[in-house]
Amino acid sequence: MQIDRLPAIPLVANDPYFSIWMPADTLTDADSAHWAGAKKPLRGRLTVDGKTYRFLGLGEEPAMETVLQRVTPTSTVSEQTAGGVTLSVRFTTPALPEDLDTLSAPVTLVDFALASADGKAHEAAIVFTADDSLAYNGPERPAMYRAAWEKDGLRFALCGQMTQKPLCHSGDNITIDWGYLYLAAPAGVEAEQDGLAFRWEGKIAQRGPARAFCYLAYDDIASINYYGSLCRAWHARNGETVPDAVARLHARRDALLHDCDVLDASVTEEAEKIGGKEYAAIAAAAWRHTFAAHKLIATPEGEMALISKENDSNGCAATVDVSYPSVPIFLRFCPELVNALCRPVLRFASLPVWEFDFAPHDVGRYPYVTGQVYAYRERISQGETFPPFYLFPAGTNPYRHENQMPVEECGNMLVMMYAAVAFGADDGLVRKYEGLLDKWVRYLVEFGEDPGEQLCTDDFAGHLARNVNLAAKATVGVACYARIEKLLGKESASWEEKARAMARSWLERARTDEATALTFDGQGWSMKYNLVWDRVLQMRLLPEEFYERETDSYLARQNAYGLPLDSRKTYTKSDWILWTASMAPKDETFRALVAPVARYLRESKTRVAFSDWYDTVTGDYVHFIGRSVQGGLYMPFIAR
Predict the structure, then answer these.
(1) Would you say residue 241 lies in a domain?
(2) 189, 221, 253 - which closes a domain
């Protein structure tokens, strides 16, 4: 028996709104829910020779017995048995980074295979339902519209609110409150009073499986308010509708599932070579999770913008210090998506309202990309929308300076911009915004070597002066700018020497008897995850013996579920653990740092989608659910 156990099991994982998980060990232990916790029931019933069992969700019927459960990068497969029949149900999100039209289409494939488990023939029927609560926010059902029709060899059923208010709210821990839920199949699909249903009936022979399938999809009507333009998903840039997308995927369904199987096998094999089965489990848990925390849209200019949502942290859109930890998965599998992460930030930073000489923190609160909301001087409640900052002229000064992350975001942008090009992305964005990058590197040179009291990406830990890890980010940021200048044919030697001088100074001031300190006054210790780029980009800012000494020092500081973020608390960030582990010259140190994260996945009692901020002693999540930063768990793919 193989049961891949996760704190929550991905079922539908397309984007921040169309993201449905099973918060249990198996598919029959609970009802499915949106990543934020709101119940969004998907339910399944199997009738065998007149007796009904459930294979998905709660209900009065007896649960089928789960005999196998497998979670791969693109699929969740559950094999269950009852009444002499074995049922395999598979949820597949075709998150294929080499096929961005398919990746951005909000469609999940649901496949069923039935076989005789006792060598006898059986009569069987499947009922799979999707509750119409997927199409509204909150506990009260509004007036709903339902319809069904046939087109392109498929039967479609649809439900949605009769009063449509696209993009009617902004915030965190809320679900979509507009748009239409779709269910489609060659036959057997209907719109019912409380949702959509797929039905199949057939005979199960003594040998050979019977098969059925359907598609779940969601039309959000308008995906993102992008600086005043209501933009659709990337797949819709030439007019493709959601039913069109379903029909396109259906036309190549077998090939699509094959492509997903090939990707699953390739990613799993590479992960096992890097870090064994424990790291492969982490990689499988992070794939759909990461892509589902983003929305890939087409801008009015026809360019790609990849918009993250800060799930369960503050709801911000395209946050720079959330994009920064996520980029390893994109650098490895589609580096152009890193440009797509940076594009909306560069646009905002060029506007008159942004008068700071450092990079912004974000460009809005999802699904509004209308200007930074972090450190806004006024309070805006969850559900409400912020003013259109992109229209504000210079001099309006809407932001508090003390709550910015200046060194953090400048370093993040410089690293991401260079790393994207280094891994094969187009260099046009770097060339277009060279002036901004020059401003930001000068900020790092002036303020980054020994940062004053300010926030970093780990802002939940509060302001910290003389942050050694933040200074490390400034150093690699300056080194990345030197590489950018060389790429552009400009004078780069002085910038490279400045980065090396900063690295020498950093090492001398950060070193302690054991390894390196938390702050430059010699207090505490911390993960130095920002230095991983020195190794990824082969900058050689610090000697090899430093990395061996530093990473070995972490081993004695680990708890049951991993290495704490620093000496102040027992909580950690899983993305930073994988970055820190990736710096280790010794494979045994790398694996020893990674193993507790896999243990957290297997044992955590908190039923949320792979939290990146959890306690290393108890295994309980502290905060943050389903965040895009888990793309950082793929750092070993580019660092080892």
Answers:
(1) no
(2) 221
